[in-house]
Amino acid sequence: MKKQFHILLVDDDNSIRFVLNELILDLGHQVTQVSCAEEAIEKLNQLTIDLVISDVRMSGKSGIELLEFCQQNFPDLPLIIMTAHSDLDSAVSAYQKGAYEYLPKPFDLDEVVTIIEKALQSTQTNDSPPTQVDENNPFLIIGESPAMQDLYRAIGRLSNSHVTVLIHGESGTGKELVAKALHQHSPRKNAPFIALNMAAIPKDLIESELFGHEKGSFTGASNRYFGRFEQADNGTLFLDEIGDMPLETQTRLLRVLSEGAFYRIGSTQPTSVNVRIVAATHQDLLKKVELGEFREDLYHRLNVIPLRLPPLRKRPDDIPLLAKYFLQQIAKEINEPQKQLNPESIAIMQRYQWPGNVRQLENVCRWLSVMANSQQIFPQDLPPELISQHQQVEPEQWSQMLSNQIINGYQKGETQILLKIQQKIEKILIESALIITQGKKVEASKILGWGRNTLSRKLKELANAKK
Ligand SMILES: Nc1ncnc2c1ncn2[C@@H]1O[C@H](COP(=O)(O)OP(=O)(O)OP(=O)(O)O)[C@@H](O)[C@H]1O
To answer: Model pTM?
Structure first.
């Protein structure tokens, strides 16, 4: 028979407690529910609890304080932290203060079940979590999509380790940002973070850049140069675009990784270093291995922990957050009021494919901050590449969507559906005309078959409707 465990549920939100209570009972375990950390401490002192699941923000003591109490008094008791604030900082601090797991709200119930079962198993195997505390995070990583939450968890879990990490992701997805965050949340955070992009330097200079050289070791080597490995001693070396590393350099790198030492070019004395490698690639390295362009042994050596950064088009929910963040940062930078995206503009941005990922979004926000005429950014203000893609909607798709909306409206008993749709269509016609004419109202009114005054009046009506 399955062992029954006793779980303490701490949350001031009745509905969350209700859902979790049902779920845990269904799993065949016993539950005690409380609504604050103080009551939880009382229960912990009275009962034998196997697992605590706690919210962070509650009146009185916080979930993190409860976690600290458990660490001191019941160090083997696993605690799962739940929080509605799913950012990198909360995840790292929960893990570093000893949380067994970190669960961003709203959560997926299947995932909760898996985590609870795993935590309960750990009470039998004593699979204890990390304990060191790290407060620092200057690199803001924005995003709340499930893929980003997985990433925050991974960074949190790796935060006490020196393990080699290989970050996979298209260009502009934030690989360097993640590499910096890994460093900043590691025991090496007070030592240097040094980056080298294999694609950005001539191939014949890569070895000297990495390993350094002695004075006079080749033409142009007028001084001794300490390479990136030595610069990164005790810290992290970020090898970006590792797929572009020449084969001979790969062989040398492999040797350094296994021996922890190398020779500066022109030197006969080995130099020892203690460097953590974080590498990144936008290429399919396994394919390069197959083609004989990348050493398989090096691939496995680097790919100890693979982290995958999803392209931006796969996490459209993060786009409004990221855009708002960039518009805010850029406004500060150029000392101008912050521009706001109107809902249609956001919708267009969420449908766009973003081949340049977050970097492209950042650039678009920069462009908009400087170029958009008004405070509100309307679809016609968006750069042409976003708009031309936006226009490629399948006709069957939009008529189906319209029909769904109409049926929905009828079912809700709406009476002005035709008027609403006419207004919507008129709005689309106006916006499209302005897109095509890049905002030139005289030309747009010609396309629409209206007089200029009519267009101005309609635009005013639209602007008033938005207020
Ligand atoms: N999640 C994010 N939150 C905030 N800023 C981000 C995020 N992801 C990327 N950025 C920003 O986007 C830009 C590109 O990120 P980064 O240089 O880390 O990408 P990359 O994957 O290393 O690109 P490449 O492969 O082209 O070198 C940077 O300015 C970075 O700060």
So the answer is: 0.65
